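Lab meeting minutes (informal)
Scribe: AK
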Amino acid sequence: MTKRAVLAGGCFWGMQDLIRKLPGVIATRVVYTGGDVPNATYRNHGTHAEGIEIVFDPETTSYRRILEFFFQIHDPTTKNRQGNDVGMSYRSAIYYTDDEQKRIAEDTIADVDASGLWPGKAVTEVEPVGDFWEAEPEHQDYLERYPTGYTCHFVRPNWVLPRRSAAE
């Protein structure tokens, strides 16, 4: 049985390109999510974020592991911004599918905040997954088709998210 995760952390091209390579990730697609416009498109997506839907095998990887990688490849402390991309479309957000994902998301964010790995506290939104729209074909698998295309995401070397101690 597979599970899914829906995340937003800046331009969806770079997110998809890195997350798809994680062990246990079966499929990804870039989407518009978390906003107000039905049938969202690149030219008209209102308050939606550029997001990614991830289908994964929970026997191979965990939701927590996907979130740890998510926080490794984008800066969760910049509100409505990743690199040169500015605006609501580029916010940091986790769209949970159930109460367990919500709990894991909040716990992971608390670990990010306690870690000191970023220059401030995470501004990552945690919201229930709602309607979302698949992005146009030209946005799917973009960096596979254009390997030198634009991205503001990268794997930070030796970045490991520590867990808070139970005593804190």
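Next up, CB showed the second protein from the same session:
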Amino acid sequence: MTPPTPIAPTPASVTGVILAGGRGERMGGRDKGLMDLAGQPMVRWVMDRLSPQVNTLIISANRHADAYASLGAPVVADTQPGFAGPLAGIAAALSATTTPWILTTPCDCPQLPDDLLERLSQALQAQGGRLAIAHDGERPQPVFALLHRSLLPDLETFLSAGDRKAWIWCQRHHAALADFSHCTRAFTNINTPQEHRLLAATLPASHLLGMPTPPEDRAP
């Protein structure tokens, strides 16, 4: 029997989840969310874009929990071992939150759309289901997702089977697609030092009082 469709999300019923639990391998092992970007940690750019759209924020991180917590949001670590990818962070956040919905985004996309929740919610209402993801006009962006907490048991089963691919899991649930073809650049993530330098050159300098010093990680 198909479960009833959940009540449509509103900002008050959504927790924003910033995924910062990766290894940062192409960035030399550094924790990307804490890297300085035009005067503040990269994750702060994402927080400032996401927080007006949701009820509260959670940061999913597997390193430097104290530095992330100092930015004012609870920090949740993966329960899956070995840096199991963004789905593991999403599962941990679903377990930790009390809201019926979460809205997820990676920590390395500082130009996040300011209408991400609105457009994903519209896609859910038009197409149905419990999961909506962004589509940038060229490809799906499965870690920019709005999903209902009732999906947690299936996600945990998926991860326990050793599966990691976010797009495959989204397809299992016939994810609604929200059109963001008007702002493809908003989904450009920062993976390498060169990409980091290029983006930093385009952003206005910004300085936060009490900004934590980004740890100088090195690849193991």
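CB comment: The CA atoms of residues 19 and 104 lie 7 Å apart.
No objections, moving on.
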